[in-house]
């Protein structure tokens, strides 16, 4: 079974631009969550999507948004990029929501650098 | 903002020794606790999902316990091997009144180095 894939793997953007990151979950998984990892803040939860609906959202500004498609693939969008958005963005998928007994499987991440 | 603390922050252990570390979390509105292992240049890997007070889970030489009433979980590694070197993260999932999960908060991790 193929693992979680994320595209692109690396991205360099300029302040003020917007960016879209993509995540393809493991086949059959319906839950996709997004996380931001920075040296200072560690790993922080962004959103959880299940069956095309956002079920939970972390403490991030409205510039961070996401969506999930009917095939469970998910995209994350960051508008008006700031230098502080430079981070590793990870997505994870699981068969069910992570509040249950399901484990999450992480993708390799997208390294975003904002200059 | 929830307080999820992991201690110690880093740990050096001799190969063959056993070790343990702690994840502390709010004792109210508990829904689930996850443990992950994150090796350098790899993705986090799920170790355990713990949902019930008193849960004890085991995977090979690694085991974990959960005390939701006092708000802590221990992760134990027996007979440490160099391949155990990684950052171990816990993630607390709070409960929403009326049912359902309400957010996920990671601890900062325990960085474990096994010395041959």
Description:
The complex is a heterodimer of chains A (115) and B (116). In chain A, the strands form two sheets. In chain A, strands 2, 4, 5, 6, 9, 10 and 11 form a seven-stranded mixed sheet that branches. Chain A has a four-stranded antiparallel sheet with strand order 1-3-8-7, with no helix packed on it. Helices cover 0% and strands 52% of the residues of chain A. The mean pLDDT of chain A is 93. Chain A is mostly beta strands and 115 residues long. Chain B has 116 residues and is an all-beta fold. Chain B contains no helices and eleven strands. In chain B, strands 2, 4, 5, 9, 10 and 11 form a six-stranded mixed sheet that branches. A five-stranded antiparallel sheet of chain B has the order 1-3-8-7-6, with no helix packed on it. The model of chain B has no long low-confidence stretch (mean pLDDT 92). The interface between A and B is medium-sized, with 27 and 23 residues.
What tags apply to this protein structure?
heterodimer; A: 115 residues; mainly beta; seven-stranded mixed sheet; four-stranded antiparallel sheet; globular; B: 116 residues; six-stranded mixed sheet
Radius of gyration of chain B, Cα only, in angstroms?
14 Å
Order of helices and strands of chain A: EEEEEEEEEEE
Structural class of chain A: mainly beta
Give a short account of the largest sheet of chain B: 6 strands, mixed
How far apart are the termini of chain A? 37 Å
Average pLDDT confidence of chain A is 93
The coarse silhouette of chain A is globular
Shape of chain B: globular
Percentage of β-strand residues of chain B = over 45%
Q: What does the oligomeric state look like here?
A: heterodimer
Structural class of chain B: mainly beta
Order of helices and strands of chain B: EEEEEEEEEEE
* Average pLDDT taken over every residue of chain B: 92
Radius of gyration of chain A: 13 Å
